[in-house]
Design a protein that fits this description.
The chain is of the alpha+beta class. It has one domain: Four Helix Bundle (Hemerythrin (Met), subunit A) (Up-down Bundle), CATH 1.20.120. Helix content is 64%, strand content 12%.
Length: 149
Amino acid sequence: MKFEKIMQLWIMGLMFLLSVSAYADEEGGSEPQPEAESRTVLSDPEAKKNPVRINAEIRELIPAFLKLTSEEISSLDNAVSENNHDMIRRLGHRIAGACLCYGFGDMAAISRKIESAGQEKEDLQSVRSLVNELSSYMEHLDIVYESDG
């Protein structure tokens, strides 16, 4: 059990470094952007898309990340229903950190708002609205996997 946790943390750290590296490359602007390797669309073709560029090296990890994030959003729904601000704060923090590690910056920003709402004990209608926003964003992802070369 400890080994699995250590490996999970190591992988999350690696994903964070990859996402920071990708962000630094975008900010530098000196190198041309790599061409998209492939796309994964997780939503209705008629709906508004939320494009996210992800390093192709972590492609195999993304389905598990999305599944776990979806489960965490369900837990957030339960925490809102139970008026559990502490759990809302903790789940918002956890989701935000995971999203940053995998390169989903916009989802992380929404999750940080959820974390803050839990911390400040904001009204549950506002929190529910943020949770719905996060869920909707995730449902309309348009993931573009990019290679380094």
